Structures are given as C-alpha cells and as structure tokens.
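Aim 2 progress update. The chain analyzed this quarter is reproduced below.
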Amino acid sequence: MIRKTIKVSNITCAQCAKSIESYFNDLPDVNAQVLVTSKKVIFNYDESKYDQDKLGDHLRVIGYYPIFNNEDQIKAKKKDLIDLIIAGILTFPLLWTMFVHLGIDIYVPSFLMDGYVQWAIATPILFYVGRRFFVQTYHQIRGKNLGMDALVVLGTSAAYIYSIYTTLTYDAHAGHAMPDLYFETTAVIIFMVMLGNFFENRVKEKTSNALQSLISLGAKEARIRKNGVDVMVPVDEVKPGDLMIVLANEKVALDGIIENGSSYIDEAMITGEPMPAFREPGMKVIGSTMNTVNTLEIRVTAVGSDTILANIIKTVEDTALIKPKAQRIADKIASLFVPVVVLISITVFLLWVFVIDGGHQVSHAFAPAIAVLVISCPCALGLATPTSISVGSGIAFKEGILYKGGEFFEIANKISAIAFDKTGTLTTGHPELSDFLGDKETLKFAASLEKHSNHPIASAITDAYEGNLLEVADFSVLLGKGISGTIEGRIVYVGSPNLIKELGLTHSFDHLSYQNQGKTVFFTVIDQVVVNMMAVTDPMKESAKAVIDELKRRKITPYMITGDQERTARYIAKELGIEHVFYEVLPHEKAEKILEIQKEGHVVAFVGDGINDAPALKMADVGFAVGSGSDIAIDTSDVTLMSMDLGLVIKAIDLSLATLKNIYLNFFWAFAYNIVMIPLAAIGLLNPSLAGIGMGFSSIMVVLNALSLNLFRFKNITPGGIKE
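Predicted structure tokens:
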C-alpha cells in the first residue's frame, strides 16, 4: 500500500471529514483519513489501481477540490475570495432591508422592498455562491452523515421558498403592506458562513505551521554522480544506492551513509541539538540537514516515504488524527446533532404557530425556526480535538518531542510510575575512561591492543589516548576475560580481574572501590607484570538526577530496569535516588517487569532506547523512546524524544496535560455555545441573519483557543534543578 497526502481546499469541519472517509472507505483497496485542521486527506491505496489523479477525480465527484501544487492553491484561494466578494456585493442591498424588518427607522429605496427584486438578488447568492453547500449536503446525505452544510441548506432554502410563496401570493391591490420576507436571511446566512469560513481558514493555517515548516525542510534536488559527472536531479528520481555529492554549506538532500569525506552536520532542525555533529565515513546522515564544512560523498540509503524526514512528517500528521475518549463521545453527539436540531426547529415552528402566536402569523414562527437551524453548529465539536493536538504537536516538535498517537494525551495525567532503562537512557550510552592508575606511558599499549577489539568499551580506552598507536601481532580475544597480543616483541594483555587471577598475577591497585562505584575495571599486563589499572564508566546524563527528583516531587515513582550487573545498577540507582531497581534483566523479561509494576496498581510509562527495550515500550501504558536509539524502539513507542535530554520526558507530560486542558476548554465552549444559543433562537431573541454570524464565530473561537497553546511555557530541567 502506498501513502499519499493530498491537500483539499474546501474541507471545513469534521462532517466533511466523515463524508470523505466514508466515501473512500467504501471503495476497494483504498482508505482515507482527513486532517481537518490542515485541510489534508491521507490516502493509503494500491498503486496498481489508483494514482494521484484518480484520487483527485474521486474527490471532485463528491464536491471536494484537490490541490496538487502551489498554483492550484492560489486558484482555490482566489475562487473562494471571488465567491465571497460576489456574496458581499449582492448581500449588501438585502442587508439594508433587514434593518426595516428589525424595526429600525432608516431610509431604504422602495424598489429594494419589492419581493421580486429581492428574489432576483437572492437567487444567485443561494444557487451560485452557495452551490458548495448543496453539493456537500448531497454527499453527506448519501454518506448518512449530515453536518453544518445540511443546516445551512435547510435554513436558507426554507427562507427562500417561503419568501417566494409570500411574494407570489401577495396581492398589491388588496391595500395591505408586503408581509415579511426572508430573502435577506438567505443571503446574509450564506455570506456570513462564508466570511466565517474565510477567517477560520486563515486561522487554521497557523495551527499547521509546524507541519508546513517540516515539509519545507525537504530538498527539491540532489547532486548525483553518474558516469563520473555530477548532475542535479529531482529527489523523486533518486534511487537507493546512488552516490550523492554534498558541497559545503549545502543541504543533505536524502538519508545516506558517508563514503568519502568528513564534515560537521547541522542537525538542529531534526534533533534539536544546537551544536553541529561530526560525521565521517561509515556514519549515517539525515536528509534535510545542513553540511557546514567539507564536501561529502554519500551513498543514498532511503528515498521518498522511507526517509527520516518523511517518517517524522507522517508521525506529525497521524498525531492530528488522535481521538481521545472525549472526542469519540463528541463525534457520536455530532452524528446525531443535525437530526436533533431539525426536530427542535420543527417543534419551535409548531409551538410558535399554534401556541405562542395562536395560529395568526406563520411568518412570526418562521424566523425562530430558521434561527435554530442556522445558529446550531456541530463544527465546533468536531474541531475541538484536532485543532488543539495540531498546535500542541507543533510546539512539541520544536522542543524535540514527537507525539505518535495512542492515548497519551488522556493517560499522561494518570502516570504514577516511570521505569527507565539504564544504558543510553539514564546514562549517555558512551563509555568513558574515568580513572587511570599506573605508568601513563603504558596507556599506548592498552590503546593499541584495544584498537583491534570490537567491544563497546574498547573505544573508551582508544579515545582516551591521543598519540600514535603501535603495531600489534598475534591478536587474540579471550572470551569473557579480555584480549591479548604481541607489541614490540612483548606479550600484552588487557583484561578483567578474573584474567589477572587466571594468570596468577598480583597487583597493588584497589579495584574493588572502583567496582563498588559501578565502574568496569581493566588491567594492562606486559610480560607478566600488571602495569596499570583503568576504570571505565558510562556517565550519567546531566539532567537525569533533576528529572528523577522532579518525578518524585510529583508523586510519580521512578524505577530502573537494566540488564547490567547488580553492583553497577544499585550504585547508579543510589546516585539518582531511585529506590526500585531490577537488574540483570534479560530483554524479554523487561516487559514482564513492566507488567509486575502495573499489577501493583500503577499506570506505567517506560523510557528506553534499544532494540531490547521494544517489548517493554509496547507493554507500558506509555512508551518514551530516546530518539538516538534504535528504529525498532522508536517505532514501538508513543512518544519519541529526539535528543539525549531526559528532561524532555517532563516536557512531554506537561505539554500533553496543557493540550488536554485546551481540548476540554474547546468542548466546554462548543457545548455551552449550542446550549445557550439554541434556546435564545427558539424564543425569538436571535435574528436568523445574526445567527449566521454566530455559526461561524463558534468555530473561530475553538481554533483561537487552540492557538492560545502557543502561550505555554516549558519548565526547563537542568542539572541544578527545575527552572520556569
């Protein structure tokens, strides 16, 4: 299945989304999901049966207009603006007559009060400018999913038809005045709804700024070497395995592995790290990052939807599709909304005709019935969640946090325990030589030998030595104990205390005190003499202690689950203030430990980075993957932390809570609006034309409230503690 995102110009609310989704999901080998806030449809389809053009044709069939390029977008905006201007020009004279109906003493030309003139003016507004409402209502009826468009069509059509009937049956020679007409109601409702949509669309564009900025990061062309010649090629035509040449101060177009050259890569837009990262042959580079120093030759490893940037965009898009429980309830209410409102409108009409007005003036009953139809707005309910999550996700991404769906927004405030992996999560995952005892000249023997080892700790020793390495002969690995070789005709060993025992050697170094600190101890032996002792440690992350302290302050219990030995695990836990420690845990057992914690009544989050953390990330109620970790860990998590900063855990929780509060405030506004406005319209206190303004205003308020999330300020976790 191929994934494709298509922008659609006239998606206005959740009911539009349901119409599109139900239509495509009834077709074979294709499904659609709609991002209301960014007006996009995400398709997953069989490429042998569909392509972009066919999907666009299907959208047009149901009254929606796809935008495939910038030119289409400009045309769509221009078309909407022209319709709005036409509606405004034609509505103004009818709006003038409305003041007379409201009892305001104002001069109005007599010909404008003529029913036939009003009929002529209102007709193009209803059937030309308002054609979109009829088309979309038709498809909503077919999809059994009525929305705002249906209410607009019912309200405006009822006012239009009643006014025609009144105009045709009016007898000018009977000596009485022209009765109330509602042509201006038809015109004003359509104009005001379109004006509301116009402003709402402009505001919505700001909710998807993060996604737009992400998309804009991608390069359009790549310099590819073909037959010894470098040519610029559109990125869509590049294939995995092609050799890409990236000059200094040029964007890395696609993901790949460096084959030749070394440079500093600015990855801030992806990882959030401010300092450029050094990259050399054999290292991976990420598409859309910036090469700052030297020319690089890079073998392309991923193109199109397989790139890291494409996957981040996919994640941000999918996050906007999250539907917490409250939104699912709201969707059910919205699906019943239109039939209930129509029923209320009919009831109001009948009450006014037979009870309130005593059967004298049908026209008196018409205004409140139409006002009920028009003031009601299911859009605000449908927009409550996606607008807030879109804004929240954008803010999070700028901080280096990727929300990935699931129920994180609902669960975050319930988390009562967080379990951490040790290596690469609480610690940096990059061992360092912390202590060296003995003759410093002998370090070159240890480094020369370790250079031939692929053990993770070997690099800690070689990195600590800056001189020239010596030639090594007869290199051998002593499994579980160390390594050996011949250097300058001397037999050299680098190994653990167990190796020293096996060799029957003695030394004066106090290695136990270092091991009690959780450090790994190695000795260098030259010609059966122990010449030095080295202690290697995996340093704790700077923010780890402050994060643990903050969690405990919030009554969230920290746990540590590690495969490391007991002594090291307990030392690290003690340093960080973690009282609950599981050590020497095998990869598949980590998930079992999470289950044990859950059985104690906790809602558990797990923070990890490795392949062996994937089962635990999946088992936990919420999984946090450190972005520098494995792809599998990231894929199985609910939240990805795109930098090594552990403080992002706190930031992710805090922002999700703020987003959830914002969603609930949106729901409060949406429900309160309808609960207050529908009764006001029913008792005749709300003119139908003013109701058209209110309908648009309700959705705008929800979007503006979502944008208020931009005022959220993170608490910064530093080694010294938390800062506002």
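Residues 173-177 have pLDDT under 50 and may be disordered. The longest helix spans residues 648-682. These observations will guide the mutagenesis experiments scheduled for the next reporting period.
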